[in-house]
Amino acid sequence: MIKVGIVGAGFMGKIHAESLKQLNNGCVHVVYDVNPEMARSFAKTYDCRVAGSFEELLESVDAVVLAVPTTFRKDYLESVFKKNVPTLCEKPLARTLEEAEWIAKRVEETKTKFMVDHVVRFFPEYREIQKRIKEGEIGVVSEARSFRGGPFPRWSRWFKSFKMSGGVILDLAIHDIDFWIWTLGDVREVRAQSLDFSEEISKDHCYIILAFENGALAHIEGTWAYPSDAPFKTAVEVVGSNGTISFESTQITPLKIYDEGGEKVESPVAMGPYVRVMESFLNAIEKDLPVEISAEDGLRAVRVSLMALKSAVERRTVKAGEML
C-alpha cells in the first residue's frame, strides 16, 4: 500500500483524496495545510493524520500530491527533490516560465518520479479523440475547436488574482492547450484575447488560436463568465481530410465520429478521470514505470499558455521563438 501525503486540504486536495479511496494500492496517510483548521477537517473526513509541517509529512510518506495554489508550488518542491519523493503536481506546473523550467530541470537532475495532473488526457472521450487522430482515422487534421467553461471558481479567493492564477487562460484553457499539443504537436504561434488581468477578477473569458508547425489550427474558447448556477461544460470538434470527430459534454452519447460510412456514436465508459490519473501515478511508482504526463509536458503547456497570455496582454501574435 502506497502511503500518500496530500499537501493542500482545499478543493483539489479533496478530489485526489476521493480518488485514492477508489483504489486498492494507495491511501491517504497524512495531510498538511498552512491552515490547521482545514487540515483537521480534511483528516476527519478522510481518516488520516495531520502533519505539523511539510517536512514532517515528507518523512512519513511514499508519495506526495501537491494541491496548493500555483505560485506556492516551488516553495515545496525543493524539499521534494532533495528527498526524491514521487510527486503528483496539480496543473499548471508553475505561474512563470522560469519556475516551470526550474522544476523540469530539477526533475531531470534528481530523477524524481514527477507527474503533472493534466487530467483532460484521462477523460475517456478526449483520450479516444486523441487516439483516433493519431491513428489517422479522420486523415490530416486542418482545424480543431474546443470549448471549456462555466461559472467563476469561487471555492478559493486566489483565482481572482491574475498574478497568482494567470486568469482563465493559464488556469482553465491550459487544459485544452495541453490536449492540442499532445494531439497535434508543436505550436508555431499564438493569438489570444481575454477580459481581465486585474487582482479582482470576477469573470473572465478567452479566445485562443494556436497555429501548429504541421499547418493545423486550433481555436480554444475558455470561460469563467457564466452565471453561478450554470453547469460547467466542454466541447470539441476536429476536422480532418477524411472525416470529423465531435464531442459535447452535455449530450448523453457525446462522442460522434463522421466518416465515409456515415455517423457513428460512441460513449466510452471508464472510471472517473481523476481516479485514472491517480491510478496511473501509483502504477508508475509501484511498477517503476515512466509517468504518463512528465514535467517536460507540463513545461510545454505552460510555455504555450504564457504565449497566449502575452498575446492577450500585448494584443498581438506571439511566436514560439519569443518564449525560449
Describe this structure in words.
The protein has 324 residues and is of the alpha/beta class. The chain folds into two domains: 2-119 and 276-294, 3-Layer(aba) Sandwich (Rossmann fold), CATH 3.40.50; 120-258 and 302-323, Dihydrodipicolinate Reductase, domain 2 (2-Layer Sandwich), CATH 3.30.360. It is 37% helix and 27% strand. It is built from ten helices and 15 strands. The protein has helices spanning 11-21, 36-46, 54-59, 73-83, 97-110, 124-134, 162-165, 167-184, 273-286, 295-314, and strands at residues 2-7, 26-32, 49-50, 63-66, 87-90, 114-117, 141-151, 187-194, 205-212, 217-226, 233-240, 244-248, 255-259, 262-266, 318-319. A nine-stranded mixed β-sheet has the order 14-13-12-11-7-10-9-8-15. A six-stranded parallel β-sheet has the order 3-2-1-4-5-6, with helices on both faces. The longest helix has 20 residues, at 295-314. It is globular. It starts with a strand and ends in a 5-residue tail after the last strand. 43% of the residues are buried. Mean pLDDT is 93; it is low at 264-270.
